[in-house]
Amino acid sequence: MGKKKRTILVSACLLGAHVNYCGGHNNHLAVRMLREKAILIPICPEQLGGLATPRPAAEIKGGTGKDVWSGTARVLTATGEDRTEAFKRGAREVWLLAEVLGAQAALLKARSPSCGHGEVYDGTFSGVKIDGDGITAAFLRGQNLPVFSEDELARCEKWLSTGES
Asked: Residue 164: pLDDT above 80?
């Protein structure tokens, strides 16, 4: 009997689902190949939060995902529409799925205001990045769930093999 596969949440856009803000995807072959090593659960926090696809691009204004949870930053579109509550609702729904399905980690889309891990856009819609996590990544990390981005596949694969990141 082989080693039991770990279960990880994966941003659905990385698996080729057309769920990103513009209705496209961020298909990533190496992420898709992880299905050989893990059980992949596709998630899109923005859709789970009730936002449509396509939808206006949004960025965190005034900080990072951690700041959104503390109430000092908001998620806004370029025209100033506040999407904070939808993003927070989506993060809570992702955590519910993690609990119900026994997910042991998450592999999320880099730089996304929901999923970004390690860096996100600064809220000016100018392409400037700042250190920090998106709303869902911050929430999951607060629940002690390991979080990786597609830029950290080597670290994710090490975790899948050894449990160490």
From this structure: no
